[in-house]
Design goal:
Layout (H helix, E strand, L loop, with lengths): L1 H14 L11 E5 L2 E4 L4 E4 L2 H4 L8 H13 L10 H12 L5 E5 L2 H20 L5 E5 L8 H5 L4 H4 L9 E4 L4 H7 L4 E6 L15 H12 L2 E5 L23 E4 L10 E5 L20 H16 L2 H22 L3 E7 L2 E6 L4 H9 L2 E2 L1 E3 L3 E4 L7 H16 L7
Helix pairs in contact: 3-10, 4-10, 11-13
Bound molecules: pyridoxal-5'-phosphate (PLP).
The site of pyridoxal-5'-phosphate has 15 residues, from helix 5.
């Protein structure tokens, strides 16, 4: 079997672009919080497809919705109305600050839509020249040209210049810096309420409220990128609900379809006239198939107690990791909310990720030194205990001079 595994991976390395530094396992099956590789080895999954599989792998609800809708109608384009799309939009509007929804296929596309809406609206309202969007250092908004231009990390932008103009960066958690950056070319501020790829960076007390105040005073649009932290991951449906601050525009993707590709851009009514017929479009956006599944996912997150469960499991995991901090001085910080949790180390986290994988646990590392935990929201306490036991073992033997 091992020989066969090597063969599969050798073929992959030959026929696909090497854009991903993949781990040397080939996953073939999943159920709940578990996945199996082609040798039959089992892993407890604390990555969840990068915050995507909120209801876990092979969720019977999802499978059933997928199967039923695939027999009815998969795709017809947005030249026509389709019922599952309208139903998902209704659910999102009823359960958020927003009045309108645009569907697309990924987080990057949702942010593209947000950037386009903000610019077009501002041009209509304020005239030429008001197009700059302020973004945060350490942010991540996607890999398309516009969204990588909006991303505050050099490593994402390298080699792709000239980048799109009209983006400006200020440090996250710095209200003074933000205020100083606002001039009369600025139309909007985009940020993740909790930065995910940046290493689970948490907003300081009063920060998001302060950003909202600046936006209100200067008549700027506030865009929240909730692609990673939204859809229940923090224990509320949307991360911003914890802070009592609503944006004008919000983007969603990752967990929205539990693994089917779907993104959404939501906004308040006032902006909707800027996106009239012909202003923006995508062929696959909100197909009956993905929206039928996403409605099922959203209803389950809201109605089946997963938000409370996520808050409880998150508090437990975070508390236990904080306990580790006293025992292991290489753990510098533990941050997060619900089941988006980061443990910042004073050294590279890759050896921990590798050791976990060998012992049958998938975890992830952001920014080289932040162990990141994004398990399905349905993860159980026993599964968390199992991971913690293994982490404890690994930490005991973690070489002091590593990294
Ligand atoms: C993953 C992510 C994106 C990009 O989503 P894709 O579906 O990969 O295009 C954008 N913003 C945030 C906050 C993300 O975590």
């Amino acid at each position: 079997m091992n020989g066969q595994m090597k063969e599969t991976q050798a073929l992959a390395d030959k026929v696909m672009f090497q854009t991903y530094a993949r781990f040397p396992i080939t996953l073939v099956r999943g159920e709940g919080c578990r996945v199996w590789d082609e040798d039959g080895k089992e892993y407890l999954d604390f990555v969840g497809g990068i915050a995507v599989c909120a209801l876990g792998h092979s969720s019977p609800l999802v499978t059933e919705a997928l199967e039923a809708q695939s027999k009815e109608l998969v795709h017809v384009s947005n030249l026509y109305y389709t019922k599952p799309q309208i139903e998902l939009a209704r659910l999102l509007v009823e359960n958020s600050f927003a009045d309108r929804v645009f569907f697309c296929n990924s987080g990057a596309e949702a942010n593209e839509a947000a950037i386009k809406l903000a610019r077009r609206y501002s041009k209509e309202k304020h005239g030429e020249g008001r197009h700059t969007i302020i973004s945060m250092k350490g942010s991540f908004h996607g890999r398309t040209m516009a969204t990588l231009s909006a991303t505050g990390q050099d490593k994402i932008q390298i080699g792709y210049d000239p980048l799109l103009t009209g983006f400006k960066f200020v440090p996250f958690n710095d209200l003074t810096g933000l205020e100083k950056a606002v001039d009369d070319t600025v139309c909007a501020v985009i940020l993740e309420p909790i930065q995910g790829e940046g290493g689970v960076v948490y907003p300081q007390e009063g920060y998001l409220q302060g950003v909202k105040k600046i936006c209100d005073e200067k008549d700027l649009l506030l865009i929240f990128d909730e692609v990673q932290a939204g859809m229940g991951r923090t224990g509320k449906l949307f991360a911003h609900e914890h802070f009592g601050v609503a944006p004008h525009i919000m983007t969603l993707a990752k967990a929205l379809g539990n693994g089917l590709p779907i993104g959404a851009m939501l906004s308040i009514e006032d902006l909707s006239s800027a996106f009239g017929p012909g202003s923006h479009a995508t062929t696959f956006g909100g197909t009956p198939l993905v929206t039928a599944v996403a409605s099922t996912v959203l209803k389950s997150i809201l109605d089946d107690g997963w938000l409370n469960h996520c808050a409880q499991m998150g508090a437990y995991l975070k508390g236990r990791l904080e306990g580790f901090r006293e025992k292991y001085d290489f753990i510098k910080d533990v941050r997060g909310l619900g089941l988006i949790i980061g443990a910042e180390l004073d050294r590279a986290g890759a050896p921990v990720v590798k050791a976990c994988m060998e012992k049958g646990f998938l975890i992830n590392c952001a920014q080289d030194n932040v162990l990141r935990f994004l398990p399905p929201l349905i993860v159980g306490k026993e599964e968390i205990d199992h991971l913690l036991e293994t982490l404890d073992e690994i930490f005991e033997h973690f070489p002091a001079d590593n990294g």
